[in-house]
Automatic annotation (TrEMBL):
Keyword ATP-binding: no
Protein name: HYR domain-containing protein
Keyword vocabulary terms for this entry: Repeat
Domain HYR: from-to ranges: 20-103
InterPro entries attached to this UniProt entry: HYR_dom
Amino acid sequence: MPLPLLHELVLKVEGRADATDVTSPIANCPAKQIVNATKESNTKAVVEWNPASCEDNSEWDVGMDCTHQPGEEFELGNTTVQCTCTDREGNIGECCFDIIVKGRSTIVVNVPDRNKLNVHYFFEGSRHHQKVTFK
């Protein structure tokens, strides 16, 4: 049997290197973020977190896109942040996490006379005591 020509061997080796990647990248999101609204607005908070990351089985860079970025301002309530990793072959990996902004308590007490008053209130699941003195 005759030996194959050198260029035929090179073509066969290069053909193997062109195999299609069908494995999706892995998206890694941070844990849920729970923050209090700022004292100034009582309805919003600027939230920081460690950015999401991507892992892939290829040596190529993987693109990352998230619906929100660290340092953005969020309204009261729950916002879901979705992140998508896309590799060179178009395979997609996704993850998501929640950002929860809680409001601050405001208490107004009308006292008919100028006596001392103890105020007890609940804030974010723990009990706080505040002594208020009127003069």
